[in-house]
Amino acid sequence: MSTPVVVAAALAYLLLLFAVAYAVEHGSARATRLTRSSLVYTLSLAVYCSSWTFNGGIGRASQAGIDFLPIYLGPTLALCLGSVLIRKILRVSRANRITSIADLIGARFGKSTGVAALVTVIAVVGMVPYIALQLKSISSGLDVLTAGQPVADPAATPVLADGALWAAIVLTIFAMLFGSRSLHPDEHHPGMVVAVALESILKLVALTAVGLFVGYGIFHGFGDLFAQGRASEAVQSLYEHVGLSRGIDWMVMSLLAAAAIFCLPRQFQVMVVENVDERHLDRALWLFPLYLLAINLFVLPIAIAGRLIVPLGADPDSLVLTVPLAAGQPVLALVAFLGGLSASASMVVVEATALSLMVCNDVVMPALLRWRSLDLAQRPDLTRLLLWIRRAAMAGLMALGYIFMRWDSQRYALVSIGLMSFVAIAQFAPAIVGGLFWRGATKSGAVAGISLGFLVWLYTQFLPSLAQSGSLPGAFVTDGPLGVALLKPYALFGLTGLNPVTHSVFWTMLVNIGAFLGVSLLTRQSAIERAQAALFVDAFRFDDAAQIWRRTAYLPDLVSLAARFLGRDRANAAFAGWARTRGVDAATALHADAEMVLFGERLLAGVVGAASARVMVSAVVDEEPLGVDEVMSILDETSRLIEANRRLEDKSRELEDATASLREANARLQVLDRLKDDFVATVNHELRTPLTSIRTFSEILRDHPELPIAERQDFLRVVVTETERLTRLINQLLDLSKVEATDSGVAMAVLDLAPIAAHCATSMRQVFAANRIELALDLGDEAAWILGDRDRLVQVVVNLLANAAKFSAPGHGKVTLGLSRDADAVELFVADNGPGVPPADREIIFERFRQSGDPLTDKPGGVGLGLAISRRIVAQHGGRIWVEDNVGDGAIFKIRFAPAGPNAQRAAAE
Amino acid sequence: MQQSSKRRDRLIGLFAAGVVLLNPPVLDLFSGGVIFGWPALYVYVFCAWGLIIGGLAAVLERGREVSRGDGGDSPQ
């Protein structure tokens, strides 16, 4: 195939991709909606499958059978745990506007600029070989398509004739167009994401097409292919997997790939930064492994076919192209080339975007901001500067990648270069996992772990690779530095029998994890580290930061700071939007409280990274470090808790009290209930007794007409007596109900109690005389004015006198009716010398049907309503009635009334 | 809460199963064998892999229905 055709096809394809991306960012709503789909999210994750997969995987498979697979099995296993680990990274990153892996680690360890810069440097150094790998595969792909095989020694070709250089330039422009066209606080690049998703589809389609062509176009089905492979002695070994060392390599590769899936800058970019909806993750966690499975399904068959039909000695990494070519299918080869180009281009663009972000935010900007003579913090608009720093970083990265490719990578298979990068990137895994799940991980621990691990990587992976390409003396690897065999980079301290990658993983991880844990255990966290640790580890528990910094700012300062990086309009809109949710008017507010400062810082963090954002915000903010005030406020919080607790105890005590009084009321109700039952029983008894005797005697009279007349007279007398008693009872019951019914309606008049008492005594004299009881009067001479109803008062006094007569012994009983007056009371008393009222009964006797003693057995004459009626009447007069012991013996009933006013007395006297 | 911890346990179970099934020595049991004329190792790895993915899909897709309510909290 001629070079112009291939180049034109490649360029056309790249332009098509860009058109799609442009349409997504500027075009129709339908195109924009694409970015909200979980399928596009999943496909964008497939940026993981770079040309390493596309070309290198087949190369590896043609040499070592299924040994290429752990690179995809590892992520599958890691994603099983993804809903714990990756979701947490997502949550934390979104809440803190984290936009890169360096930002993540820097923010976790106290928003540290140093840590973020360290991570960035390592990521760049680790990723340069990986970018070189992509360039190499594009250039060798071009060579294979146009010349039939890759150029033997590209370093010998002139630079300008080198296809890889042009590939690098085109991809750099491409990356700039996609990844750094404008600044956005969320660092979303929807166009890039959709383009990557599209490329992922093409990768899968191209590889599957070649696979199916191999199975059914070249061979008679895959059974035939595998059978032919088995027949060939050279290929047979691809079907096997044995040996302890190979097993260890397999597991180490799985582990590396598992770490890479969340440590690679480009994976972080597509998985975390470009994520628009957390729910997409649930689907991607299984759909992405499915993609990995699908794209690897035909790798081994293609590799076997390559071994069978492509002449020995051909470049194994180009088999996906040479197999269709060998079978006379140049168009299929071109499709395969475009698939490989997709793989490379997507990887390079996303990686360059992610890395340039890190370089800009975590290395260049912090340095520039500290460079006082530049006075950067005072510039009005920094958005352009930021964009150009990023573009420069992209160009620099691509240049480094190209240089590495041209002078170093030629002797390496793609997979070895990729693995070297994986080991470097895996150095972040302990700090990330530890930082997210272990609150005690300190900044010193993270720095020690990452930097020592990186140094060991440099020694066991990077320097030997330079030695092999001739930049360093080869003896460095074979004999050790200065001939010290113990320090041989591939057999450090005499550790032999492992392949270089496994060997390096062992030493780097030993040093890294050891230092991370050890130093963390031995050092202390600063206040901000502790705050960030809590924020990260408890990401699922708290939505927002527990603020231990009391920071306030002049709001216009904060807004204009943000405006310098975001542009005036965007910054204003962001603050206004935020203020609206808090019910603040951003246009009139002057002071930003701690929460608003935090919002501003996170807004900036989205553009320039957490560490730089913190440095810049602190310039406009009055910040009180964790001092007495903060401690006090934390204590305050505690004391408020204690206070709340105490109030709770009070409440429960009150409740207990309420319960007690309720119980008491309940008991009283029960007593009342019993009283009511007693009342009904008593009324029943009181009515039934006379009725029974009336009926009995009447029946006797009816049934025995022969009874003597005297007996008949007796019986009739009983009937009359009982009838009277019944009448009395009914009258009194009526009285009681009348008194109770007219509680408020008593006709009151000013009365002199003395003549009323005298009248009562007169009317009762007959009763006393009949029982031979002496009735004495002690009424005094003066009038005793009270306010009252005469008839009612008579009823009370007569009742008291009748009771006294009833309870006094006939013959020597003595009852006194008296009155006493003083300034504030008129007191009437009835004293007798009867048996008296035991103290326990002194309340009871005033209740209805309650008499002293057992109401059913002791039966004094009377029905037990008199005193109840009296008390009710006295109460209606605003007075009080009670009983006490008489001087000597017997009982004395007293009634106390309020005297009527002096005017009333005078008016009545005239 | 209980639902999500159940889900997490299942995912961890899948992870453990994957570690055992997709690594030596279980893997080596199929080395060199033949199933219907295809290399046993190749067939086995892809089947086991597919099973794990199927399990993941079952757990995660069922969880989606349950967690839909709390899934959409976006601080921005």
Fold and architecture overview:
The complex is a heterodimer of chains A (910) and B (76). Helices cover 68% and strands 6% of the residues of chain A. Chain A is mainly alpha-helical and 910 residues long. In chain A, helix 9 packs antiparallel against helix 19 (383-407) and helix 26 packs parallel to helix 28. Chain B has one domain. Chain B has two helices and two strands. Chain A binds chain B through residues 65-66, 69, 73, 76-77, 79-81, 83-84, 94-95, 186, 222-223, 226-227, 230, 238-242, 246-247, 250-251, 254, 277-279, 282-283, 285-287, 289-290, 293, 297, 300, 543-544, and chain B through 7-8, 11-12, 14-15, 18-19, 22-25, 27-28, 31-32, 34, 36-42, 45-46, 49-50, 52-53, 56-57, 60-61, 63-64, 67-68, 71-76.
What are the main properties of this structure?
heterodimer; A: 910 residues; mainly alpha; Sodium/glucose cotransporter; Helix Hairpins; 4 domains; five-stranded mixed β-sheet; three-stranded antiparallel β-sheet; 68% helix; B: 76 residues; two-stranded antiparallel ribbon; 2 helices
Number of domains in the coordinates of chain B? 1
Q: How much β-strand is present in the residues of chain A? A: 5-15%
Give the strand order of the largest sheet of chain A, numbering strands 1, 2, ... along the chain.
Answer: 5-7-8-10-9
Biggest interface and residues each: A-B, 44 and 44 residues
**Could you name the CATH topology of the largest domain in chain A?**
Sodium/glucose cotransporter
Question: How are strands sequenced across the largest beta sheet of chain B?
Answer: 1-2
Low-confidence stretches of chain B: 66-76
Rg estimate of chain A, integer Å: 53 Å
Overall strand count of chain A: 10
What fraction, in percent, of the residue positions of chain A are helical?
55-70%
Q: Which second-level CATH architecture of the largest domain in chain A applies?
A: Up-down Bundle
The global form of chain A is elongated
Q: Mean of residue pLDDT of chain B?
A: 77
Structural class of chain B: mainly alpha
Termini separation of chain A comes to 145 Å
